[in-house]
Design brief:
Layout (H helix, E strand, L loop, with lengths): L1 E5 L4 H12 L3 E6 L5 E2 L2 E2 L1 E2 L5 H8 L6 E4 L6 H4 L3 H22 L2 E7 L21 H16 L4 E5 L2 E2 L9 H10 L4 E4 L3 E2 L2 E2 H13 L4 E4 L6 E2 H12 L6 E4 L1 H4 L14 H7 L6 H15 L4
Parallel strand pairs: 1-2, 1-6, 2-5, 6-7, 7-8, 8-13, 9-12, 10-15
Antiparallel strand pairs: 3-4, 11-14
Helix pairs in contact: 1-7, 2-4, 4-5, 6-8, 8-11
Bound molecules: NADP nicotinamide-adenine-dinucleotide phosphate.
């Protein structure tokens, strides 16, 4: 299939380009910053907030799918940048929906567990949303416009993405590794529960879903639900670092800028039932992540 990947220089974007190219699909990669070499060639420049640019860039490619991983992803930074967040996460997706309609393509785009308030996780796809902050609210609004569009599009909620690739933003797992390597003590919350998701495994699952012609809203994340503190300890163990450097702390004590869903996590039954797909658990993901870090480093 011919696949446009938007956000192709980001963590998930790079993994999607890699997986899709390896499976023999024709991939056309776009991102805000151009020039990153990928397996599908250099990333082309595209700002999804610019409707004219989106139309001019995507229409001539005539793709079967537009795979959108681009987003304003900073949860704390979102609180002071609501307009910018909505421009990318809501209006950007609206622009991609228009390009999809014009070319007969289908859209796959990513949402988050931050659409939930974290009082009653793990959540299935039908659970009531109640975002606590600007980032989660923008993704909930995005889900609504995709649903209202009525096309056979795919919205995938995921969470706690980790992995490594060239020139990406840092993520929780890379931050933990860097601190432990520097023999720094870190304070990690014991009361934020979720399913850590290896980006490369998410890419594998997303690709299988689109190859099966998936449509609708699905939860896709790693198979195991743990606290951030447990996740950090598992990382330390897998990389041979001293777990005693990971100090337990509550979210209230840590005082992050944006509120987070605490008892989060996903029920992954829909993915198994409708696609026959099984995400990796933490042990197998950790082995793959170790190989990624050997190849690309941990960003230090
Ligand atoms: N990371 C997580 O834990 C997590 C959890 C749940 C859901 N998600 C969702 O999963 C998706 C992928 O996440 P990720 O961690 O791979 O994100 P990421 O590494 O931040 O990648 C996003 C990419 O989109 C680009 N981008 C930002 N604004 C853009 C614009 N206006 N036009 C075109 N490209 C733009 C970014 O460029 P710059 O770097 O130059 O801004 C970046 O290369 C996102 O939709 C995210 O909301 C992530």
């Amino acid at each position: 299939m011919k696949l446009v990947v938007v956000g192709a220089a980001g963590l998930l974007g790079q993994k999607l380009v890699e997986a899709a190219t390896a499976s023999g699909h024709t991939v056309i990669p776009f991102d805000l910053a151009s020039g990153l070499p990928t397996l599908a060639g250099l990333v082309h420049p595209l700002d999804i907030t610019d409707a004219g640019e989106v139309s001019a860039a995507i229409r001539p490619t005539d793709p079967a799918w537009i795979l959108n991983t681009a987003a304003f992803t900073g949860v704390d930074a979102s609180e002071a940048n609501e307009e910018k967040v909505r421009a990318v996460n809501v209006d950007g997706v609206r622009n991609l929906l228009k390009a999809a309609a014009a070319t007969g393509a289908r859209l796959m785009t990513l949402s988050t567990d931050y659409v939930f308030d974290g009082r009653r996780g793990p959540y299935d796809e039908n659970a009531l949303r109640n975002p606590l902050g600007v980032y989660g609210a923008s993704k909930a609004e995005m889900e609504d416009i995709v649903e209202k569009d009525g096309g056979p599009h795919l919205v995938v909620r995921t969470m706690v993405l980790y992995g490594t690739a060239p020139k990406i933003r840092t993520n929780f797992a890379l931050w933990v590794l860097r601190q432990l390597r520097a023999e720094e003590e870190i304070r990690v919350v014991t009361d934020q529960m979720g399913n850590p998701t290896l980006a490369a495994d998410l890419a594998r699952l997303l690709l299988a879903m689109i190859e099966q012609g998936g449509a609708g809203l699905y939860h896709v994340a790693g198979a195991d639900r743990v606290s951030r503190h447990e996740f950090a300890r598992i990382l330390a163990g897998a990389f041979g670092f001293d777990e005693r450097k990971i100090l337990p702390v509550t979210t209230q004590e840590l005082g992050q800028q944006a509120d987070r869903p605490l008892a989060s996590g996903f029920v992954l039954e829909g993915l198994r039932r409708d696609f026959g797909l099984q995400p990796l658990g933490l042990e197998a993901s950790m082995e793959q992540f170790r190989q990624e870090v050997e190849r690309y480093g941990d960003g230090t």
